[in-house]
Protein backbone atom coordinates (compact mmCIF):
# COMPACT_ATOMS: atom_id res chain seq x y z
CA UNK A 1 0.00 0.00 0.00
CA UNK A 2 2.75 2.47 1.03
CA UNK A 3 4.77 1.58 -2.04
CA UNK A 4 1.79 2.42 -4.23
CA UNK A 5 1.35 5.80 -2.49
CA UNK A 6 5.01 6.71 -2.99
CA UNK A 7 4.86 5.75 -6.68
CA UNK A 8 1.79 7.96 -7.13
CA UNK A 9 3.54 10.80 -5.30
CA UNK A 10 6.55 10.79 -7.60
CA UNK A 11 4.32 10.54 -10.68
CA UNK A 12 1.91 13.30 -9.66
CA UNK A 13 4.34 15.91 -8.32
CA UNK A 14 6.12 16.44 -11.66
CA UNK A 15 2.73 16.78 -13.38
CA UNK A 16 1.64 19.45 -10.93
CA UNK A 17 4.84 21.43 -10.73
CA UNK A 18 6.43 20.63 -14.07
CA UNK A 19 10.19 20.82 -13.92
CA UNK A 20 10.35 23.52 -11.23
CA UNK A 21 12.06 21.17 -8.83
CA UNK A 22 14.87 20.82 -11.37
CA UNK A 23 15.39 24.47 -12.20
CA UNK A 24 17.89 25.14 -9.38
CA UNK A 25 17.09 28.86 -9.45
CA UNK A 26 18.74 30.73 -6.60
CA UNK A 27 19.87 34.22 -5.68
CA UNK A 28 18.11 37.36 -4.53
CA UNK A 29 16.10 40.34 -5.73
CA UNK A 30 15.49 43.67 -4.01
CA UNK A 31 11.97 44.77 -3.14
CA UNK A 32 10.05 45.62 -6.28
CA UNK A 33 12.33 43.56 -8.52
CA UNK A 34 10.76 40.17 -7.83
CA UNK A 35 9.14 40.06 -11.29
CA UNK A 36 12.59 39.59 -12.84
CA UNK A 37 12.98 36.25 -11.05
CA UNK A 38 9.72 35.03 -12.56
CA UNK A 39 10.78 36.03 -16.07
CA UNK A 40 14.17 34.39 -15.49
CA UNK A 41 12.42 31.24 -14.33
CA UNK A 42 10.26 31.14 -17.48
CA UNK A 43 13.39 30.83 -19.62
CA UNK A 44 14.17 27.53 -17.89
CA UNK A 45 10.61 26.26 -17.90
CA UNK A 46 10.44 26.86 -21.66
CA UNK A 47 13.94 25.35 -22.09
CA UNK A 48 15.38 28.48 -23.65
CA UNK A 49 18.11 28.26 -21.05
CA UNK A 50 20.11 25.32 -19.71
CA UNK A 51 22.27 27.30 -17.30
CA UNK A 52 22.45 31.07 -16.87
CA UNK A 53 23.09 33.97 -14.52
CA UNK A 54 21.43 37.40 -14.43
CA UNK A 55 22.30 40.59 -12.58
CA UNK A 56 21.06 44.18 -12.46
CA UNK A 57 22.55 47.22 -10.75
CA UNK A 58 20.37 50.28 -10.15
CA UNK A 59 21.45 53.49 -8.48
CA UNK A 60 24.82 51.83 -7.83
CA UNK A 61 23.43 48.86 -5.91
CA UNK A 62 22.85 45.23 -6.84
CA UNK A 63 19.07 44.76 -7.08
CA UNK A 64 18.98 41.46 -9.00
CA UNK A 65 21.47 38.63 -8.56
CA UNK A 66 20.15 35.32 -9.91
CA UNK A 67 21.49 32.08 -11.30
CA UNK A 68 19.93 28.78 -12.20
CA UNK A 69 19.73 25.64 -14.28
CA UNK A 70 22.48 23.19 -15.03
CA UNK A 71 26.24 23.39 -15.42
CA UNK A 72 26.25 21.03 -18.39
CA UNK A 73 23.81 19.25 -20.69
CA UNK A 74 24.22 16.00 -18.75
CA UNK A 75 22.82 17.90 -15.75
CA UNK A 76 25.59 16.52 -13.59
CA UNK A 77 25.60 19.56 -11.29
CA UNK A 78 23.84 22.86 -10.75
CA UNK A 79 24.73 26.14 -12.43
CA UNK A 80 25.49 28.03 -9.24
CA UNK A 81 26.97 31.14 -7.69
CA UNK A 82 30.48 29.84 -8.35
CA UNK A 83 30.00 29.16 -12.07
CA UNK A 84 31.96 31.06 -14.72
CA UNK A 85 31.01 31.37 -18.39
CA UNK A 86 32.67 32.27 -21.68
CA UNK A 87 30.76 35.25 -23.11
CA UNK A 88 32.22 35.69 -26.62
CA UNK A 89 32.01 39.29 -27.94
CA UNK A 90 30.60 40.60 -24.68
CA UNK A 91 34.33 40.70 -23.88
CA UNK A 92 34.74 43.62 -26.30
CA UNK A 93 33.10 45.98 -23.82
CA UNK A 94 35.74 45.08 -21.23
CA UNK A 95 38.51 45.74 -23.77
CA UNK A 96 36.90 49.09 -24.60
CA UNK A 97 37.01 49.96 -20.88
CA UNK A 98 40.71 49.04 -20.73
CA UNK A 99 41.50 51.35 -23.67
CA UNK A 100 39.41 54.15 -22.14
CA UNK A 101 41.38 53.78 -18.90
CA UNK A 102 44.60 54.23 -20.89
CA UNK A 103 43.12 57.37 -22.49
CA UNK A 104 42.19 58.66 -19.04
CA UNK A 105 45.79 58.20 -17.87
CA UNK A 106 47.20 60.01 -20.89
CA UNK A 107 48.76 56.86 -22.33
CA UNK A 108 46.56 56.79 -25.42
CA UNK A 109 44.55 59.33 -27.42
CA UNK A 110 41.61 58.26 -29.58
CA UNK A 111 42.50 60.79 -32.29
CA UNK A 112 46.18 59.83 -32.57
CA UNK A 113 47.67 57.61 -35.26
CA UNK A 114 48.24 54.00 -34.25
CA UNK A 115 51.85 54.15 -35.52
CA UNK A 116 52.69 56.65 -32.76
CA UNK A 117 52.25 53.82 -30.29
CA UNK A 118 52.81 50.80 -32.51
CA UNK A 119 55.23 51.71 -35.35
CA UNK A 120 55.22 48.23 -36.94
CA UNK A 121 51.53 48.63 -37.73
CA UNK A 122 52.21 51.20 -40.42
CA UNK A 123 52.48 48.81 -43.35
CA UNK A 124 50.50 48.11 -46.51
CA UNK A 125 48.14 51.10 -46.43
CA UNK A 126 47.53 51.24 -42.66
CA UNK A 127 49.83 54.20 -41.93
CA UNK A 128 46.99 56.69 -41.30
CA UNK A 129 44.85 54.43 -39.12
CA UNK A 130 43.81 56.14 -35.88
CA UNK A 131 43.13 54.63 -32.49
CA UNK A 132 39.48 55.60 -33.02
CA UNK A 133 39.43 53.66 -36.30
CA UNK A 134 40.47 50.49 -34.47
CA UNK A 135 38.01 51.01 -31.61
CA UNK A 136 35.03 51.75 -33.87
CA UNK A 137 35.64 48.91 -36.35
CA UNK A 138 36.88 51.25 -39.11
CA UNK A 139 40.40 49.78 -39.40
CA UNK A 140 39.63 47.71 -42.51
CA UNK A 141 40.88 44.41 -41.07
CA UNK A 142 37.63 42.61 -40.20
CA UNK A 143 38.61 39.15 -41.40
CA UNK A 144 41.14 36.55 -40.38
CA UNK A 145 41.10 33.01 -41.73
CA UNK A 146 43.97 31.58 -39.72
CA UNK A 147 43.78 28.08 -38.21
CA UNK A 148 42.24 28.28 -34.76
CA UNK A 149 45.50 27.24 -33.08
CA UNK A 150 47.06 30.47 -34.35
CA UNK A 151 44.55 32.42 -32.26
CA UNK A 152 46.20 31.04 -29.13
CA UNK A 153 49.49 32.73 -30.07
CA UNK A 154 49.36 36.49 -29.41
CA UNK A 155 52.72 37.28 -31.01
CA UNK A 156 51.81 35.42 -34.19
CA UNK A 157 48.46 37.18 -34.56
CA UNK A 158 50.01 40.61 -34.00
CA UNK A 159 52.62 39.88 -36.67
CA UNK A 160 49.89 38.86 -39.12
CA UNK A 161 47.88 42.02 -38.45
CA UNK A 162 50.97 44.19 -38.92
CA UNK A 163 51.51 42.70 -42.37
CA UNK A 164 47.85 42.66 -43.43
CA UNK A 165 46.44 44.94 -46.10
CA UNK A 166 43.11 46.61 -45.22
CA UNK A 167 39.96 45.66 -47.11
CA UNK A 168 39.01 49.36 -47.27
CA UNK A 169 40.90 52.57 -46.61
CA UNK A 170 40.98 52.90 -42.80
CA UNK A 171 38.47 55.44 -41.52
CA UNK A 172 36.26 55.48 -44.62
CA UNK A 173 33.83 52.70 -43.64
CA UNK A 174 33.04 50.37 -40.77
CA UNK A 175 32.60 46.63 -40.54
CA UNK A 176 32.46 44.35 -37.52
CA UNK A 177 35.95 43.09 -36.57
CA UNK A 178 34.71 39.96 -34.80
CA UNK A 179 38.10 38.64 -33.66
CA UNK A 180 40.70 41.11 -34.92
CA UNK A 181 39.26 43.94 -32.80
CA UNK A 182 40.53 42.24 -29.66
CA UNK A 183 44.15 41.88 -30.78
CA UNK A 184 44.25 45.36 -32.35
CA UNK A 185 42.86 47.14 -29.30
CA UNK A 186 44.67 44.84 -26.89
CA UNK A 187 48.05 45.44 -28.50
CA UNK A 188 47.56 49.19 -28.08
CA UNK A 189 47.06 48.68 -24.35
CA UNK A 190 50.07 46.39 -24.16
CA UNK A 191 52.27 48.86 -26.05
CA UNK A 192 51.58 51.82 -23.73
CA UNK A 193 51.37 50.00 -20.40
CA UNK A 194 54.33 51.22 -18.28
CA UNK A 195 54.47 47.81 -16.58
CA UNK A 196 54.61 45.86 -19.88
CA UNK A 197 51.76 43.55 -18.89
CA UNK A 198 49.64 41.44 -21.16
CA UNK A 199 46.13 42.73 -21.79
CA UNK A 200 44.72 40.06 -19.47
CA UNK A 201 47.06 41.10 -16.67
CA UNK A 202 46.23 44.78 -17.19
CA UNK A 203 42.52 44.01 -16.95
CA UNK A 204 42.93 41.91 -13.80
CA UNK A 205 45.03 44.53 -12.01
CA UNK A 206 43.44 47.78 -13.20
CA UNK A 207 39.76 46.88 -13.62
CA UNK A 208 38.84 43.56 -12.03
CA UNK A 209 40.73 44.05 -8.77
CA UNK A 210 39.49 47.62 -8.01
CA UNK A 211 35.88 46.56 -8.67
CA UNK A 212 36.34 43.12 -7.08
CA UNK A 213 34.91 41.33 -10.11
CA UNK A 214 35.85 38.20 -12.01
CA UNK A 215 36.34 38.83 -15.73
CA UNK A 216 39.22 36.91 -17.23
CA UNK A 217 40.90 37.29 -20.59
CA UNK A 218 43.33 34.44 -20.11
CA UNK A 219 41.84 32.17 -17.44
CA UNK A 220 44.14 30.92 -14.66
CA UNK A 221 44.29 27.13 -14.95
CA UNK A 222 43.16 26.63 -11.34
CA UNK A 223 39.80 28.25 -12.22
CA UNK A 224 39.04 25.96 -15.17
CA UNK A 225 36.80 23.63 -13.16
CA UNK A 226 34.33 26.49 -12.67
CA UNK A 227 33.74 27.16 -16.38
CA UNK A 228 30.42 25.83 -17.66
CA UNK A 229 30.81 24.18 -21.08
CA UNK A 230 28.82 25.66 -23.95
CA UNK A 231 25.68 23.72 -24.82
CA UNK A 232 26.12 23.28 -28.56
CA UNK A 233 23.70 21.87 -31.12
CA UNK A 234 24.95 19.40 -33.75
CA UNK A 235 25.21 22.23 -36.31
CA UNK A 236 27.36 24.36 -33.97
CA UNK A 237 30.50 22.23 -33.98
CA UNK A 238 32.53 25.19 -35.27
CA UNK A 239 32.43 26.52 -31.70
CA UNK A 240 33.85 23.35 -30.13
CA UNK A 241 37.25 25.03 -29.71
CA UNK A 242 35.73 27.50 -27.25
CA UNK A 243 35.11 24.64 -24.82
CA UNK A 244 38.81 23.74 -24.70
CA UNK A 245 41.08 24.56 -21.75
CA UNK A 246 43.76 25.88 -24.11
CA UNK A 247 41.28 28.43 -25.51
CA UNK A 248 40.28 29.57 -22.04
CA UNK A 249 43.92 30.11 -21.02
CA UNK A 250 44.77 32.11 -24.14
CA UNK A 251 44.12 35.83 -24.63
CA UNK A 252 41.61 36.21 -27.47
CA UNK A 253 40.08 39.49 -26.30
CA UNK A 254 37.55 39.75 -29.10
CA UNK A 255 35.81 36.58 -27.98
CA UNK A 256 37.09 34.52 -25.02
CA UNK A 257 36.34 36.57 -21.91
CA UNK A 258 35.10 34.46 -18.99
CA UNK A 259 32.91 35.94 -16.27
CA UNK A 260 29.48 35.81 -14.61
CA UNK A 261 26.50 38.15 -14.69
CA UNK A 262 27.19 39.74 -11.32
CA UNK A 263 30.72 40.75 -12.36
CA UNK A 264 29.58 41.93 -15.79
CA UNK A 265 26.80 44.10 -14.35
CA UNK A 266 29.17 45.57 -11.76
CA UNK A 267 31.70 46.39 -14.49
CA UNK A 268 29.13 48.55 -16.27
CA UNK A 269 27.84 50.01 -13.01
CA UNK A 270 31.45 50.92 -12.21
CA UNK A 271 31.83 52.71 -15.54
CA UNK A 272 28.91 55.06 -14.90
CA UNK A 273 29.22 55.71 -11.15
CA UNK A 274 30.32 54.56 -7.74
CA UNK A 275 29.10 51.12 -6.69
CA UNK A 276 27.73 49.50 -3.53
CA UNK A 277 27.15 52.66 -1.49
CA UNK A 278 30.43 54.19 -2.71
CA UNK A 279 32.46 51.18 -1.56
CA UNK A 280 33.89 50.85 -5.08
CA UNK A 281 34.87 53.99 -6.96
CA UNK A 282 33.96 54.45 -10.61
CA UNK A 283 36.62 53.39 -13.12
CA UNK A 284 36.18 56.22 -15.65
CA UNK A 285 35.59 59.91 -15.13
CA UNK A 286 32.46 61.49 -16.56
CA UNK A 287 34.45 63.24 -19.28
CA UNK A 288 36.31 60.12 -20.45
CA UNK A 289 33.10 58.08 -20.40
CA UNK A 290 31.36 60.63 -22.64
CA UNK A 291 34.22 60.38 -25.13
CA UNK A 292 34.27 56.59 -24.96
CA UNK A 293 30.56 56.20 -25.70
CA UNK A 294 30.22 58.90 -28.37
CA UNK A 295 29.30 57.41 -31.75
CA UNK A 296 32.04 57.27 -34.38
CA UNK A 297 29.70 55.79 -37.00
CA UNK A 298 28.07 58.12 -39.56
CA UNK A 299 24.29 58.05 -39.41
CA UNK A 300 22.75 55.10 -41.27
CA UNK A 301 26.12 53.81 -42.50
CA UNK A 302 25.82 50.12 -43.40
CA UNK A 303 28.16 47.70 -41.64
CA UNK A 304 30.47 46.29 -44.35
CA UNK A 305 30.51 42.84 -42.70
CA UNK A 306 27.05 42.44 -41.20
CA UNK A 307 25.25 44.30 -44.01
CA UNK A 308 22.95 46.10 -41.56
CA UNK A 309 23.22 49.45 -39.80
CA UNK A 310 25.29 49.23 -36.62
CA UNK A 311 26.61 52.03 -34.43
CA UNK A 312 29.94 51.91 -32.60
CA UNK A 313 31.62 54.27 -30.19
CA UNK A 314 35.15 53.68 -28.87
CA UNK A 315 34.77 49.91 -28.65
CA UNK A 316 31.29 49.99 -27.20
CA UNK A 317 28.24 48.96 -29.19
CA UNK A 318 25.53 51.64 -28.95
CA UNK A 319 22.20 49.95 -28.24
CA UNK A 320 19.60 52.73 -28.35
CA UNK A 321 17.82 51.20 -31.34
CA UNK A 322 17.59 47.79 -29.68
CA UNK A 323 16.19 49.00 -26.35
CA UNK A 324 14.11 52.13 -27.09
CA UNK A 325 12.08 51.68 -23.90
CA UNK A 326 15.18 52.55 -21.85
CA UNK A 327 15.77 55.85 -23.62
CA UNK A 328 18.99 57.16 -25.19
CA UNK A 329 22.63 56.68 -24.24
CA UNK A 330 22.76 52.88 -23.90
CA UNK A 331 26.20 51.35 -24.38
CA UNK A 332 27.65 47.87 -23.94
CA UNK A 333 28.17 44.75 -25.99
CA UNK A 334 26.44 41.52 -26.92
CA UNK A 335 28.08 38.16 -27.34
CA UNK A 336 27.42 35.30 -29.72
CA UNK A 337 24.70 33.03 -28.42
CA UNK A 338 22.95 35.33 -25.96
CA UNK A 339 25.26 36.87 -23.36
CA UNK A 340 25.11 40.65 -22.95
CA UNK A 341 26.22 43.48 -20.69
CA UNK A 342 25.25 47.16 -20.94
CA UNK A 343 24.66 50.37 -19.04
CA UNK A 344 22.10 53.18 -19.21
CA UNK A 345 23.74 56.23 -17.59
CA UNK A 346 20.53 58.28 -17.60
CA UNK A 347 18.79 55.58 -15.55
CA UNK A 348 21.87 54.70 -13.46
CA UNK A 349 21.22 51.12 -14.57
CA UNK A 350 23.36 48.22 -15.70
CA UNK A 351 22.18 44.81 -16.90
CA UNK A 352 23.95 41.52 -17.57
CA UNK A 353 22.79 38.12 -18.78
CA UNK A 354 25.21 35.20 -19.21
CA UNK A 355 24.29 31.83 -20.75
CA UNK A 356 25.73 28.43 -21.64
CA UNK A 357 23.04 27.49 -24.19
CA UNK A 358 23.83 29.26 -27.44
CA UNK A 359 21.12 30.82 -29.57
CA UNK A 360 22.83 31.69 -32.85
CA UNK A 361 19.59 32.38 -34.75
CA UNK A 362 18.52 35.63 -33.09
CA UNK A 363 19.89 38.66 -34.92
CA UNK A 364 18.86 41.59 -32.73
CA UNK A 365 17.46 41.13 -29.20
CA UNK A 366 17.65 37.72 -27.58
CA UNK A 367 14.16 36.58 -26.62
CA UNK A 368 15.43 35.46 -23.22
CA UNK A 369 15.72 39.03 -22.00
CA UNK A 370 13.70 41.13 -24.46
CA UNK A 371 10.50 41.30 -22.39
CA UNK A 372 12.55 41.42 -19.20
CA UNK A 373 14.26 44.65 -20.24
CA UNK A 374 10.98 46.20 -21.38
CA UNK A 375 9.40 45.42 -18.00
CA UNK A 376 12.41 46.84 -16.16
CA UNK A 377 12.15 50.02 -18.24
CA UNK A 378 8.45 50.36 -17.47
CA UNK A 379 9.05 49.95 -13.74
CA UNK A 380 11.86 52.51 -13.66
CA UNK A 381 9.90 55.00 -15.77
CA UNK A 382 6.82 54.51 -13.58
CA UNK A 383 8.83 55.03 -10.39
CA UNK A 384 10.49 58.10 -11.88
CA UNK A 385 7.11 59.58 -12.78
CA UNK A 386 5.83 58.87 -9.25
CA UNK A 387 8.88 60.54 -7.74
CA UNK A 388 8.36 63.59 -9.92
CA UNK A 389 4.75 63.84 -8.81
CA UNK A 390 5.72 63.39 -5.16
CA UNK A 391 8.43 66.02 -5.52
CA UNK A 392 6.05 68.46 -7.16
CA UNK A 393 3.41 67.82 -4.48
CA UNK A 394 5.96 68.43 -1.73
CA UNK A 395 7.12 71.70 -3.31
CA UNK A 396 3.49 72.78 -3.78
CA UNK A 397 2.72 71.98 -0.14
CA UNK A 398 5.81 73.89 1.02
CA UNK A 399 4.88 76.89 -1.10
CA UNK A 400 1.26 76.81 0.18
CA UNK A 401 2.48 76.78 3.78
CA UNK A 402 4.78 79.70 3.04
CA UNK A 403 1.91 81.70 1.51
CA UNK A 404 -0.32 80.84 4.46
CA UNK A 405 2.24 82.11 7.00
CA UNK A 406 2.86 85.27 4.97
CA UNK A 407 -0.88 86.01 4.92
CA UNK A 408 -1.11 85.30 8.65
CA UNK A 409 1.82 87.65 9.30
CA UNK A 410 0.22 90.45 7.21
CA UNK A 411 -3.18 90.07 8.87
CA UNK A 412 -1.70 90.22 12.33
Strand content: 5-15%
User: For the report, how would you describe the main beta sheet?
Assistant: 7 strands, antiparallel
Question: Helical proportion?
Answer: 25-40%
Return the average pLDDT rounded to an integer: 92
Per CATH, what is the topology of one domain?
Answer: Beta-lactamase
Question: Order of strands across the widest beta sheet?
Answer: 1-3-2-10-9-8-7
For the CA atoms, what is the radius of gyration?
24 Å
Tell me about this structure.
This protein is of the alpha+beta class. 36% of the residues lie in helices and 11% in strands. The chain contains eleven helices and ten strands. The chain is globular and about 90 Å long. The model is unreliable at 4-20 and 388-393 (pLDDT under 50).
Task: Briefly characterize the structure.
It contains 11 helices and 10 strands. With 412 residues, the protein is of the alpha+beta class. The protein has a domain of 274 residues: DD-peptidase/beta-lactamase superfamily (Beta-lactamase), CATH 3.40.710.10.
List keywords for this structure.
single chain; 412 residues; alpha+beta; Beta-lactamase; 7-stranded antiparallel β-sheet; 11 helices; 11% strand; signal; Beta-lactamase-related domain-containing protein; Beta-lactamase/esterase; Beta-lactam/transpept-like; Beta-lactam-related
